[in-house]
Amino acid sequence: MKKIVFTFIFLVAGIQIGLAQTEEELKTKLAAKKDSIAAIQGRANAIQAQIDALPGWKIGAFGTIGGSLSGFNNWFAQGIPNNDAGTIGVTVNAYANLLEEKYFWRNSANVNLAWVKLDDRDDPTDDDSFRESTDVFTVSSLFGYKLTNTLAVSTLGEYRTTLLNNFNDPGYLDLGVGITWTPINNLVVVVHPLNYNFVFSKGDAQYESSLGAKIVADYTRKFGAINFKTNLSAFVSYEDADYSNWTWTNSFSYTLWKAIGVGFDFGLRSNKQEAFNYALAQDALLVPPPTEVRTLENTDNELQSFWNLGLSYSF
């Protein structure tokens, strides 16, 4: 009986040692394969960088689609027990760049739209339609003549407005000249000390155009399954600091299968003239009206932001 027990113990121990050796061998082989994949990807990225540096047109686009729908019936734990709700968001980043030995022409467009809906089925007077919640539209065109491999004299035109609501009210058009620095293929830094910021508006809105400096930093990169773009666009007014504004947008997408993946976008903006005109509109709705006279100087310039998470698609 003892011999049988000892034989069984040695057999189990031998199986465990064999399995452990097999697991370690498999892990070693897996690590070697991962190193090989990393080396291959590195060579592929180097070749892609050479392709990106070639002269000619470079065209591409990627975007994010996010959304959710929900419905509740007699869900008494919440304030609106019977409701239908939903959100839909779409972001598109597109570019068309002409790169030549002596000059370049870079064009880009960013569209970020979102709708939200909350239908209270117990309230027949409420708005049960989708309403605009995010509305961003920006196009830019940058032309530069190269002085060196990294510096160029340049001119930039950039237009920003909304599409779904209050188109061109306000609308911003920047036109200016200066210097563009391109230290690497994917990074563009624009410094235009001579720039005029045209602001278009209608009705009772109070906006001022002014002369100032335009600063833009844009980094767009595609490596492997990842698309990434970050853009900072700032205007510094020479006439009044309250006329200055800046917008920073970021887009990230990771491809999971073919051209489909997951994407995330977020943006920040500071624009005191927009905050002032929104505050004026809100003051007009108050009864009785506020006693303090609303001015651009006494308006709080709150930071604006948006974000969107959902499926992504790259072209």
Give a structural overview.
By secondary structure, the chain is an alpha+beta fold. The chain is 20% helix and 53% strand. It is built from two helices and twelve strands, in the order αβββββββββββαβ. The protein has a twelve-stranded antiparallel barrel. A hairpin with a 2-residue loop joins β8 (210-223) and β9.
Quick synopsis:
The protein is α+β, with helices and mostly antiparallel strands and 315 residues long. The protein is built from two helices and twelve strands. Helix content is 20%, strand content 53%.
Give short descriptive properties of this protein.
twelve-stranded antiparallel β-barrel, flat, 315 residues, alpha+beta
CA-to-CA gap between the ends? 72 Å
Instruction: State the helicity in percent bands.
Output: 10-25%
Overall residue-averaged pLDDT value:
85
What count of helical segments does DSSP give?
A: 2
Number of strands: 12
Q: What structural class is derived from the secondary structure elements?
A: alpha+beta
What's the order of the H and E elements? HEEEEEEEEEEEHE
